[in-house]
Amino acid sequence: MTAPEEGLSTASPGGRRVLAAAVLGSGMAMLDGTIVNVALPRIGEGLGAPLATLQWTLNAYMLTLAGLILLGGGLGDRYGRRRVFVWGVVWFTVASLLCGLAPNGAALVVARGLQGVGGALLTPGSLALIQSSFRPRERAKAVGLWSGLGGVAIAFGPFLGGWLVDGPGWRWIFLINLPLAVVVLVLARGVPESRDWEAEGRFDVLGAGLAALSLGAVTYALIAAPTSGAGTAAAVAVGGVLVGVAFVVRERRAARPMLPLGIFRSRLFTATNGVTLCLYGAIGGVFFLLPVQLQNGLGYDAFEAGIATLPITLLMTVLSGPAGALAQRIGPRLPLTVGPLVAACGLLLLHRVHPGSGYWRDVFPAVLVQGLGMSLFVAPLTATVLASLEVRRAGIASGVNNAAARVAQLLAVAALPLAIGLSTDEYRSATEVNAAFGRAAWLCAGLMALGGVASWLLMPAALTALPGGAPVNRPQCRTHCAVTSPPLEPGDGRRRGWRRPSEAG
Questions:
Q1: Is 439 exposed, middle or buried, given 0-12, 13-18 or 19+ CB atoms closer than 10 A?
Q2: Rounded to a whole number, what is the distance in angstroms from the first to the last CA of the chain?
Q3: Taking the alpha carbons of 15, 19, 20, 22 in that order, is the dihedral positive or negative?
Q4: Residue 85 region, left (φ>0) first, then alpha (ψ -120 to 50), else beta?
Q5: CA distance 132 to 124
Q6: Among candidate residues 483, 469, 80, the one with its CA nearest the CA of residue 315
Q7: Tell me: the pLDDT tens digits for 120-148?
Q8: What are the φ/ψ torsions at residue 84 (nearest 5 degrees)?
Q9: Cα separation, 344 vs 332, whole angstroms
Q10: Concatenated DSSP letters for 189-244?
Q11: In a designed cystine with 451, which of 102, 278, 408, 445 is the match (CB 3.0 to 4.6 A)?
């Protein structure tokens, strides 16, 4: 067994290979998070699909990803982190191929759900490779490089996505993953294998299934309500809630639960995740409808719609690190209050965007203000959720917070069109889209402001030691510019039973 202090250096060829594999692997999933939203109007046009299909195109992916992402990390610990990472890459790539070849909306939705399963293996797996491969004293640096370089993929996404949609077509936003995956798999051949040799017990597959089924039923009820009738939708929603209750009962009784409910005894952890639901629900709603408004309402092409929101990504790239450092000095309450309120002002400014609006006069000020607000709260939100639990629980704290953000977006995408009266084929009409988007801007701004007010009431003035004097965990992902979710953070850094490939077998 190799001594714990051994491992790779970020400056070594092997270290650079691990970083490249992890960054490119997670970058595929990050690219899909920015590209698919931009392509939705063209997908609807190409497949002749109603709005519900576009909602499911996003939600099928988020449903399986949110339901299984906590399980994905555990699989890597048990069966080998490199092995599960490779499984995730292959699964994600095959699902991407199915998405690109989908003959109709139903096939695309199924393929997107399968893609989310691959993402649940791939996303935590890429971070696990970093955490398990590098020397203890270099892990924080490696995680920071993984986070920062991953931001390059996110910033590049709007350019690539818009060009692909306007050029060879929307199917290529999925097919582009195939050559990327080949590069990742070649790089992964030189990545050392590692696992937790003390891991034992069964996986909580039943808990993961109940969580996904509950979310799926509630999502179906919200999306299908305009066409299936209130009675049917209500019955499905009630069924989803009952399955959710069964999930809670299961997690309380399971020996190794996917979601240990004891972590919610921390009022700060519970409050931070509640704020996360508000903030990322607003983000998910506006990023679902804004590309539709820009393309179907204002007549932008996909490339123009993609780069229209680029200021948000650039601001988060530049300001998320300083905002996190500021929160460490002054405490999380002020950034988590001011940030959402500023972002809410940006969402209100989007209310002015209508057919005939100019980009620099109307769209740019709105996304600029929104980006400033988001830059203020994303890093402090992660710092707060990590500080709410013991250092040894950093991985689960980050995973739950990441899943909460995705669940919030899942529900927002499902509920928002119903709330604003946009359904069936109305998203193709500039008049209908413009009226509905104006209502959506108000609702999303209100949800964002609610998160800011809740932060003022519930967040502490400073992040101090935990009860008993335990130290507060600090984020290692200092730069983060993904708008779809908070960053994943590694656990306590222990690598029990790490072995070289020749020893691990």
A1: middle
A2: 13
A3: positive
A4: alpha
A5: 12
A6: 483
A7: 888 888 888 887 788 877 777 787 777 77
A8: -70, -35
A9: 18
A10: TTSPP---TT--S---HHHHHHHHHHHHHHHHHHHHHHHH-HHHHHHHHHHHHHHH
A11: 278
Burial of 435 (0-12, 13-18, 19+ CB in 10 A): middle
Give the contacts of 229 (CB within 8 A, at least 6 positions apart): none
Higher per-residue pLDDT: 132 or 419: 419
C-alpha dihedral, 95 to 99 to 101 to 105, nearest 10°: 140
Residues 36/54, Cβ–Cβ less than 8 Å: no
Radius of gyration of the chain (CA): 22
Are 411 and 300 spatial neighbours (Cβ–Cβ below 8 Å)? no
- Structural contact between residues 9 and 138, judged by C-beta atoms closer than 8 angstroms: yes
DSSP-derived secondary structure letter, 363: I
SS3 134: strand
Query: Three-class SS of residue 8?
Result: strand
- DSSP tag of 477: -
DSSP 462: S
Q: Output the six-digit token pair for 81.
A: 């982190």
Q: What is the DSSP string of 58-127?
A: HHHHHHHHHHHHHHHHHHHHHH-HHHHHHHHHHHHHHHHHHHHH-SSHHHHHHHHHHHHHHHHHHHHHHH
